[in-house]
Amino acid sequence: MAERRRPRRRSTGGRAQGSSSRRPERARREGRRARLRRGLSAKRASGAAKVLGLSNTRRAAVVAIVLCALAFTIAVPLRTYLIQRSEVAVQEQRMAELEQEVARLEARKAELSDPAEVKAEARRRLRFVLPGETPYMVQLPEDERRARQPGGEQQPPPKGTWYERLWDSVSR
């Protein structure tokens, strides 16, 4: 393979060159070094391209394919990581809610361990009356209005046992 070289400047022969047209010695050396560096790096790059048989366009295409493959390789695990992280956050929030509910239920359990509280709860919710007490039911006018409203009426209790009603609903 033939290497291309820059032609060297030839001296002007017998013509005299003035000191103003000559570059200083140090500047000439730095210029030579820069040219050598450029030449070596260009030779290395062109040598690699020649060895692989790739032009600049082909090298760019190979780099693009490699980058795409890396992106696809990283994308799936990254997506899985982000989904799992969001699921963990949801589950932690749910766990905090459940812990609050457990604490509330424990407090309620502690309240109901007192026999006086149990009696008060039975009187309030179940209308429990001790022997010898006279129960009173106070009906307020608001209760009568709710009973008269069509949406406020309760359905009469069903007649018969549950299995008779079930049989009647199946046999019809």
Automatic annotation (TrEMBL):
Residue numbers spanned by region Disordered: 1-42, 139-172
Ranges that cross the membrane: 60-78
Sorted UniProt keywords: Cell cycle, Cell division, Coiled coil, Membrane, Transmembrane, Transmembrane helix
Name of one Pfam family that matches: DivIC
Source organism superkingdom: Bacteria
Name of this protein: Cell division protein FtsB
A single BP term in Gene Ontology: cell division
Species whose genome carries this gene: Amycolatopsis cihanbeyliensis
Biased composition regions of type Basic residues, renumbered to the chain: 1-12, 29-41
Coiled coil: 81-115
Keyword check for Transmembrane helix: yes
